[in-house]
Amino acid sequence: MNHTNQNKEKKSVARNSVFAAIFLTLSKFIVGIITGSIGILSEALHSGLDLVAAAITYFSVRISDKPADNQHNFGHGKIENLSALIETILLFVTCVWIIYEATSRLLSGNFEIDVSIWAYIVVISSILIDLWRSSALSKAAKKFDSQALEADALHFSTDIWSSFVVLIGLISYQFGFQYADSIAALIVAIIVISVSYRLGKRAINVLIDAKPDDKYSIVIDILSKSYKINGFKNLRMRSAGAYVFVEVDILLNQNLTLELAHTISHEIEDTIISNIPNANVHIHIEPIINQRVTN
């Protein structure tokens, strides 16, 4: 699949997520107002922020695949990571409101809600839609190594669990457990905080150029097993969206011809790229006497 088709598919998945978020936000908000359920209203706010996050993801995917230019020599990939960080902030905002509202109801004892068939319809529909879009986003994220789509997929997979919690809260309320709806909302907030932390940590690591440990170990393995080099040093790696930048010095026998040294460096570069899609590899050659050196 060429670059243009890849970008079209990524944008299509992100755009479908936006449409789904619009539908869920409106339906949850309307039913939440009608029933007075804090659990459903918390889900409505959650979905509203999902909508903002999905829109940010869509625009970040559109921008991140633009090629490098004079102002952005390493491309626009970090737009995806910035998008993931913004999603994290929005998720934390969600938690503040949910915790405040649920705690207020628990302290005041005001638990009056009207559980109707529409409450069950919107919650069950939300679970089914989130299953569909989370699966689609996850597949696209793995296919294109996109952190923005991966963040969206993780985001919406937690929506499934939070909707289940709200569903249990509604059922429990009808069986006389009045605290259930507010407790369900607090559990939703805990789930969201957990996801926010993981998303934020990953996004910040990329934005501050922390090395991608999983891909770093792949490069170490390739270099260590290469019998054509005498060793390597100064391996540095960083990520930007779906792209990985690799810099390394390889040590070669000083008696090798320039042509052969150049061929060996290209072989290593090709091996790294075949194992890490979207890798941008820069190899510096250093002459050395014929002995093996470890990093």
Short overview:
With 295 residues, the protein is mostly helical. The chain has eight helices and three strands; from the N terminus they run αααααααββαβ.
Q: Could you walk me through the main structural features you see in this protein, from its secondary elements to its overall organization?
A:
It contains 8 helices and 3 strands, in the order H-H-H-H-H-H-H-E-E-H-E. It is mainly α and 295 residues long. It has a 3-stranded mixed sheet with strand order 1-2-3. Strand 2, helix 8 (258-275) and strand 3 (279-288) form a beta-alpha-beta unit. Helix 3 packs antiparallel against helix 6 (180-207). The mean pLDDT is 76.
What does the secondary structure layout of this molecule look like, with pairings?
Layout (H helix, E strand, L loop, with lengths): L2 H33 L2 H27 L13 H31 L8 H28 L2 H28 L5 H28 L5 H13 L5 E10 L2 E11 L4 H18 L3 E10 L7
Parallel strand pairs: 2-3
Antiparallel strand pairs: 1-2
Please supply descriptive tags for the structure shown above:
295 residues, mainly alpha, Alpha-lytic protease prodomain-like, Alpha-Beta Plaits, 2 domains, 3-stranded mixed beta sheet, 8 helices, elongated
